[in-house]
Specification:
The protein has 6 helices and 10 strands; from the N terminus they run H-E-H-E-E-E-E-H-E-E-H-E-E-H-H-E. The chain is of the alpha+beta class and about 240 residues long. It has 2 domains: about 30-135, 2-Layer Sandwich (Alpha-Beta Plaits); about 145-240, Alpha-Beta Plaits (2-Layer Sandwich). It comes from Flavobacterium beibuense.
Length: about 240
């Protein structure tokens, strides 16, 4: 029974496919809404689970095509409740109702978000959907990507990767840092074979990071231009912002 119950969480389910709307939504001035699916504890037959699976897959495809869907997360019925002086594990499936999934969508306003939730079957099993809107953050800025591309000879690979690790560890400690990634080319004919990407809150954070990195180089006696010249490494770098729709 529990396996069938967990399958339900993964499926979420929707109403009959004939109720779906294929009309694309207006992408201008869209807001993000988070849908919390509150599910009752019900056991389903294998046939019902398969039907729900097919319906949910169709809905996701439909929402993606219409520009509604952003992301989805599905949750197990058990959780750990952390209190100030106590931690306890609980199984919500024994309490009759719990948040089984969270889905993020785009909608023009709350009324439209409500309309979209009507396409889901949570109501057919006496469940409900909680709609939340993110609280606006003052002075919200657009993240900036700082991208470096490197052309590294094979004999310099080991020294280069050691320096990349040192730099990445440093960046993670600086204000305004969001995340970073490093990639090695595996196919293609581009002139560079390594790429590093650091995501920052804004351009001010990048400028501060540059100063902090240079200070770290000076303190450790590391000279970047000499390192690149000695190892015949070619570096190109630039800052990028995401193109808005």
């Amino acid at each position: 029974m529990k396996t069938k119950f967990l399958m339900l969480l993964c499926l979420l389910g929707i109403q009959q496919l004939t109720a779906q709307n294929n009309k694309p939504v207006n992408q201008k001035n869209m807001n993000e809404y988070t849908l919390f699916f509150h599910y009752p504890v019900i056991n389903y037959s294998d046939k019902q689970n398969e039907q729900l699976k097919q319906q949910w897959q169709a809905l996701l495809k439909n929402w993606k095509e219409r520009g509604i869907y952003i992301s989805a997360n599905v949750y197990q019925p058990n959780a750990i409740i952390v209190e100030q002086n106590n931690n306890k594990e609980t199984d919500f499936s024994s309490e009759g109702n719990f948040v089984g999934a969270i889905v993020k969508i785009k909608a023009a306003n709350k009324d439209e978000a409500i309309t979209f939730t009507k396409e889901t079957p949570v109501f057919s099993v006496n469940g409900s959907v909680e709609i939340r809107e993110e609280r606006p953050r003052p002075n919200k800025t657009v993240p900036v990507l700082f991208i470096d591309t490197f052309t590294v000879p094979d004999k310099a690979k080991t020294d280069f990767l050691e320096r990349v690790k040192i730099n990445r560890d440093l960046l993670k400690t600086l204000p305004g840092f969001i995340e970073d990634h490093a990639y090695e080319k595996t196919a293609g004919n581009s002139s560079f074979n390594y790429v590093t990407i650091a995501v920052w809150e804004n351009e001010e954070a990048i400028e501060n990071a540059k100063q902090q990195v240079m200070a770290s180089y000076k303190k450790s006696g590391f000279n970047m231009p000499e390192f690149l010249k000695k190892n015949k490494i070619i570096l190109h770098r630039a800052a990028y912002k995401e193109i808005e729709n």
